[in-house]
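Record 1 of the preview.
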Amino acid sequence: MPYYESVIIARQDMSGTQVEALADQLAAVVEERGGSIAKREHWGLKNLAFRMKKNRKGHYVMFDLDAPSDAIQEMERQMRLSEDVLRYVTIRIDAIEEGPSAMMQARSSRDDRRRGERGDRPERGDRPERGDRDRGDRPERSDRNETTSEGASE
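->
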């Protein structure tokens, strides 16, 4: 059977459980027609590049499918009928990639950076406090006022 990859954008006001229920419903349509779901990823709520049907955000779900073309056509028909699906795209691929998709890999690398696992940043205890910073040879504010007033009178 041919392989397909399908990405669905669902409405922003749906809860995570509702999005999963929608994905389960679409997966059941494919499985009823003799296909199988090789991989399913929920990418989360993301900003859209432009407004779609008055939505600025959408829940993204990606399927990797091993299914006949009539199963894909029925799944797309169900998505066209559903008011919860803003957009979808399905493409035929040569092989299903093992491991997480590029979107999930990008998310995990962002999570690592948020946790402070970057090697180029010093620990919090090594940073100077605000009052301890070396101000160089900058005069204090009162000195600057006196210097400017002297320069103006000359």
